[in-house]
Write a structure and sequence with these properties.
By secondary structure, this protein is mainly beta. Among the domains are: about 80 residues, no CATH class; about 55 residues; about 70 residues, no CATH class. It contains two helices and 27 strands. The strands form seven sheets. It has a six-stranded mixed beta sheet, with no helix packed on it. It has a five-stranded antiparallel beta sheet with strand order 18-19-20-21-22, with no helix packed on it. About 10% of the residues are buried.
């Protein structure tokens, strides 16, 4: 048996093997806590370098395996999974601070070192930027599920400054949900483009369309009820007092019903009762603006300038359907007295449109 000695090779490697099986490279006294101790002031230790795809091709990597990734997000990656068949590569450090969740994808949580944090994006544009996902709060016992906003100068609110949420579609198209405190008390406001569209006060008053509501519901503008909808008014106890219907049915018009204390309809206003004419139905009608019952009539031209309240008018014997000032006593063709004598106003004026009974 022949032995070959390589003294040059042995001399070129400076290492020390201690009895406790510590290996030192570049030092004759390796630290007792290290299995391998490398010491140098001019060189470093180069771990295996590979791409993200090559890293993914490692078969059954053990927990704690360390490599350096050269592409995508470069840096040292360590496998944190206890199951080699399901590795969980986590970025250790690379100048910028990163955090990664259990999935091992560094883009899931990202710190840009400019004060912005991204979830699902590596280019967060705001303090907290959530990309392609939702913010979820779980109702778990003994936990605080509130989201607290503090916007020092919210827009479109009433009565002071407070906190708010801003929604922006594009450019100047913005929406706000603001909670303010001030001289008007606590108030929740929904606004768009700095206009308060809906406000809810701490007294329960709701205003729609801007401004402050002095009642439980104040609408600044028009209100619309569609599709045969109705508006009901009830007093304490649930007894209905007023019902306003936009349509009684698909082919009918509107109606208004007034109820008495017993819940019975005592006044009904129907826009197209029966044959389509409007009708008011009630047991008693009281008119306080005038006491005359009058009808319109057509007066002959020569009498139009001379007619006065209190005068008698008769049927003109020469012009059918027209009246004239009565000129003889005991005229058998007298039909009435011109309304308005002695300051008595007309209380009820009757007529029929597009007929001689309407002065046509």
């Amino acid at each position: 048996m022949k032995y070959l000695l390589l003294p040059a090779l042995l001399l070129s490697i400076h290492f020390s093997l201690q009895a406790q099986e510590n290996v030192g490279i570049g030092t004759s006294s390796p630290d007792p806590s290290a299995l391998l101790h490398v010491s140098s002031t001019t060189k470093g230790v180069l771990l295996p370098t590979m791409t993200d795809g090559q890293k993914a091709g490692i078969i059954n990597p053990p927990r704690g395996l360390l490599i350096y990734q050269t592409n995508s997000i470069p840096g040292f990656y360590v496998n944190k999974s206890a199951v080699p068949a399901s590795p969980n590569w986590s970025l250790v450090s690379e100048g910028i601070n990163y955090w990664s969740p259990m999935t091992g994808n560094p883009a899931n949580i990202y710190n840009s070192n400019t004060g912005n944090i991204g979830f699902g994006t590596n280019s967060p544009s705001e303090k907290v930027h959530i990309q392609n996902g939702k913010l979820f709060l779980s109702r778990v016992a003994n936990t605080n599920n509130d989201i607290v906003f503090n916007m020092p100068a919210p827009q479109g609110i009433l009565g002071g400054e407070g906190q708010g949420i801003q929604f922006q579609v594009a450019g100047a198209d913005r929406g706000y949900v603001n909670f303010s405190t001030g001289i008007l008390g606590n108030m929740l406001t929904l606004s768009s483009n700095s206009n308060a569209n809906l406000s809810i006060g701490n007294n329960g008053n709701v205003s729609v369309g801007g401004g402050l509501g002095s009642e439980l519901l104040t609408v600044f503008g028009n209100a619309l009820i569609r599709n045969e909808g109705s508006l009901f008014l009830e007093k304490t106890g649930g007894n209905r007092t007023v019902e306003i219907k936009s349509s009684e049915s698909g082919a009918d018009g509107a109606s208004i019903l007034l109820y008495n204390n017993a819940g019975l309809v005592t006044i009904e206003m129907d826009a197209d009762f029966g044959d389509g004419d409007g009708r008011v139905i009630t047991s008693e009608l009281q008119i306080r603006g005038g006491s005359d019952l009058a009808e319109k009539f057509d007066l002959i031209p020569e009498d139009e300038k001379n007619i006065r309240p209190g005068m008698l008018v008769s049927i003109d014997e020469n012009l059918e359907g027209q009246l004239c000032i009565t000129k003889v006593a005991a005229d058998t063709k007298i039909v009435g007295v011109v309304s308005g004598a002695n300051g008595i106003k007309t209380g009820m004026l009757m007529g029929q449109q597009e007929s001689i009974a309407d002065g046509k």
